[in-house]
Every structure is written in C-alpha cells, then in structure tokens.
User: Fold this.
Amino acid sequence: MTSENSPSLSKTTKDILSRHGIKLNKNLGQNYLIDKNKRDQIINFGDISKEDVILEIGTGIGTLTIELAKRAKKVIAIEQDKKIFEILAQRLEDEKIDNVELINDDALKVDFPPFNKIISNLPYQISSPITFKFLNYDFDLAILMYQKEFASRMNGEVGTKNYSRLSAMLYFKCDVEKLTDVSNESFIPKPQIDSTVVKLTPKENIISDEDFRTYSKFTKALFQHRNKKIKNALIDSRHIISNIDKKVLKKRLNAISDERLEEYLKKRVVVLTPEEILYISKKLNPIFVE
Assistant:
C-alpha cells in the first residue's frame, strides 16, 4: 500500500478505538494525537539514532511508540490502562516490532529501566510529578508535550505569574526550550486548551545532590505561599522541611542576626531568584533541625 493510499492517523486511531470499544476519558489525560505532521515533527525533534533507548510515558495505542521503535535501538513504553496496553501489544506483534519493552504500570510508581532519551505526549494530570521524577534520572534530552499553560510555567521568569516551583526546580537541572505549539484540534477527545512541545536538556551538575535535596524542600515549602514573605511562608510550610515546632522555628528565625538573611526573610517568595532560594536554603537548613 502506498503512503498516498494509507489511512490518515486520525482514521487509524478512531478505527482502532471503535473496533475495541474504547471510549477515551480526557479526565484521565487520554487525549490522543491524531495529527500526523505533528507526530512526525515531535519524533524528528528527538534526533533519534539506532543507539538510542527511548522512554515513553503514556503510550496510548502506540501513535508515537511504533514510529519511535522503527528508528531507535529500543523503546521502553509505559501504559497504565490494561486494555490500551493490550491493544498496543497486539499492534506491535502484528507489525513484527520486537524492540519495545512494554510496561503495564503507573509511571509514577515504577523504577525506569536505563534509557538516554524521553519522548512522550504526557498524560496531563501527571505532568508535574512525572517531570520532577525525570529529574532524578540521567538522560541526554527529553521531548515532551504538555498543556500550554504548564509549559509556560516551566520557563517562568522571576516575579511573573508563570514563576513557580516548577521553573525554580528546573532552573538548576535543565535548559528548557519551547519547540512548537499543538492545537487542541490535533487530539481526540479535544482538550480545553492547546499544547506545547518542550525540549529539556540536562545541565552539568551546578550544585551537589545534597544541596539540591535541601533546595527542593525549601522550594516546595516556599511556593506553597508564593505571594507571602519568606519568613511567613517557611513558618506556614515548615512541615515540608522538618517536624520542627512552630514556636521553636519562630524563635530561631527571630534570633537571626545576619543582615542579608534578615532582608531576604522580608521579601516575597515570587521575587527571589533560584540562586537566592539556594542561598537561603543552605543558610537556614540548620535551624530546622529539631
């Protein structure tokens, strides 16, 4: 069959879903890409060679998986929905594709086998936790599709509405590059908003693992209250850092005599740069010891 006579990605997807009686639930992040041009563009962004082992989260019926497998050494494909997983397994068997390691599990709970690239149309509802999980692994690059608003927060500038825990966490770990927008018309079922494809390229270790763990705790605590002053945010979210008593923490914070630290404690969370949050976390971490 020539490519001109091949069914469209949209028709192929709808036919497979109809044949198996599948009704997608967009509340579970089941929005399937049906735009072949965007599918191919996403794959091309990955610059895949026969040396690459690709991790894909939320495979669906294999829209990306099958094409990735044709180019890569191996694809590690994780799909939580049992029925969808079985459909993909059958498609791979029918197409005699044998370089895909299929995992039927929750991507947030499973340990990832070794890989060097990530290419995924991520389920929207796990965008934040799965991105933080990726930061615990070494990889060459990640090509990831997110809701447009989420992608904007990944590169949020200090002091803006898009500056968030997410952008502060990514700052020390990855360069974030917006690659292309994808219209909501490119999916079934059609989501409420458009999507954005982003490239993450890991940075060389700028800070030690220990410092980053401390920074992570403080960043999470602070951005629970992004518009509060640092001092109040730390008191209100102290449980994220340690089990220190509220009165004890207040007393220790009030006893600080370092002028620079005192000035930082008066500032709002959202105006602090990642470097300043790192400085604060390293300086204040000892006073959170019970």
